[in-house]
Design goal:
mainly beta; Porin; 8-stranded antiparallel β-barrel; 3 helices; 8 strands; elongated
């Protein structure tokens, strides 16, 4: 019972994050890529589809520098010259500021699975690049950006120039913590 008494005395548990721009974020992006080399391998000419990435956005204010970092996991559906490919990847993004227009750099790494032949047509994918993020409101983001990418499998490598245009969603609390911290905090 000593724990119950200690918890009863607290009006509200403070959030672990005191930054109002940190919290859950989601990016939904149509994606397309144009093949740059190795046209003798299967599916090297182009791909298109859509992806959805879910993760956490953390703003870093240690030295009074307004910059932020996003890390998330994503999946989606891509079509590569008629073949269905399902990506699973880690998405890392670094934003220079949280103003109306924010440039960023990004990197993705993961796997592309072909449900017809998982053993021979599964590919390792790596995409780098950058872009511009437009903060529409405190909750919604529009972003666009190009970047080079590589897909590697047992039959060789393919290189692409990829592009994305997407809509994002941020969940943050007006009280300074992430929205999820506020949902799960103790209340009197």
């Amino acid at each position: 019972m000593p724990c119950a008494g200690a918890m009863k005395g607290q009006a509200r548990r403070r959030s672990a994050t005191t930054n109002p721009n940190s919290g859950y974020a989601n990016f939904n992006e149509p994606a397309a890529g144009y093949g740059l080399g190795t046209t003798s391998l299967p599916n090297p000419e182009y791909y298109y589809g859509g992806t959805s990435t879910h993760g956490y956005r953390l703003n870093i204010y240690g030295l009074n520098i307004n910059r932020s970092f996003f890390a998330g996991l994503g999946s989606g559906v891509l079509f590569s010259e008629g073949d269905l490919m399902i990506p699973f990847y880690l998405d890392l993004r670094y934003f220079w500021n949280s103003k109306t227009i924010s440039p960023y750099i990004m990197g993705e790494g993961g796997f592309l699975f072909n449900p017809r032949d998982v053993d021979k047509k599964t590919l390792l994918m790596i995409i780098g690049g950058g872009g511009i993020q437009f903060n529409i409101s405190d909750k919604f983001i529009l972003n666009a950006g190009p970047g080079p990418g590589i897909q590697m499998g047992i039959d060789g490598r393919r290189s692409f120039l990829s592009g994305r245009l997407g809509l994002g969603f941020k969940l943050s609390s007006p009280h300074g913590g992430s929205g999820l911290n506020q949902i799960f905090s103790f209340r009197k």
